[in-house]
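User: Please fill in residues for this 246-position structure.
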């Protein structure tokens, strides 16, 4: 979930997606409803008629495809996801269970999730929250993300993270004010935000998001599970239980 600003989309054109889904997933759609029969012209017509009468199966099939593909991609990048940019961690840096959060300082839903994450950290002393800056919402998001990583370089990411979301704005004045609240060396931070490592980290996070078909913030990874949106404390807590067991 994000604000109303447009950002990158990871969707096939609808017509092309529909053709793919009809061809590749008609078996899934119909078997799941107990609809079987011999192939051939008559069956093809039944498939056509069913889809016309129940177009929602395309949405269900698209969601199923996306979920399966995201799970496969997650398995290939899981080790990278849980390895934070140095210092970009909330909670216990040495915690045994990890929650990855894709976030944007301009995201209203991310700001609303701050209290949920704080509660999870309080309830789980061994919880490590790896932050992935995903600046996709506002024109000012990328610069704010750079300052966040500069704060991480100074070992002050949690304080900057909290100050930024408390401010609720990502304009330059608000970012600098949050940096002052967090106690950053501002001259050092201004040099750091131009470091190629910062650029590479943000580019990597955008690439991870594309692979996982994440198009909004907040999004989360707990163990083998990908969660999209501001789902609330209870669902995240359940995901952490699953992560401990996996």
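Assistant: Residues filled in for all 246 positions:
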């Amino acid at each position: 979930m994000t604000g109303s600003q447009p950002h990158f989309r990871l969707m096939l054109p609808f017509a092309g997606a529909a053709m793919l889904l009809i061809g590749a997933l008609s078996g899934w759609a119909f078997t799941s409803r107990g609809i079987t029969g011999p192939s051939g012209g008559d069956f093809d017509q039944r498939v056509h008629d069913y889809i016309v009468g129940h177009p929602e199966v395309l949405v269900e099939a698209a969601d199923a495809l996306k979920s399966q593909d995201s799970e496969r991609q997650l398995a290939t990048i899981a080790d990278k996801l849980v390895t934070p940019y140095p210092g970009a961690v909330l909670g216990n840096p040495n915690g045994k269970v990890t929650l990855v959060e894709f976030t944007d300082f301009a995201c209203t839903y991310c700001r609303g999730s701050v209290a949920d994450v704080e509660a999870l950290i309080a309830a789980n002393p061994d919880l490590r929250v790896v932050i992935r800056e995903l600046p996709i919402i506002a024109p000012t998001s990328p610069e704010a993300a750079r300052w966040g990583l500069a704060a991480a370089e100074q070992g002050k990411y949690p304080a900057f993270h909290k100050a930024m979301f408390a401010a609720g704005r990502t304009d330059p004045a608000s970012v600098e004010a949050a940096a002052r609240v967090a106690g950053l060396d501002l001259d050092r931070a201004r040099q750091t935000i131009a470091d190629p490592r910062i650029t590479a980290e943000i580019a990597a996070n955008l690439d991870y998001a594309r692979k996982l078909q994440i198009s909004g913030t907040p999004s989360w990874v707990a163990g083998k599970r990908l969660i999209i949106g501001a789902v609330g404390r209870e669902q995240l807590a359940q995901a952490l239980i699953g992560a401990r067991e996996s």
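For context: DSSP finds ten helices and five strands in the chain.
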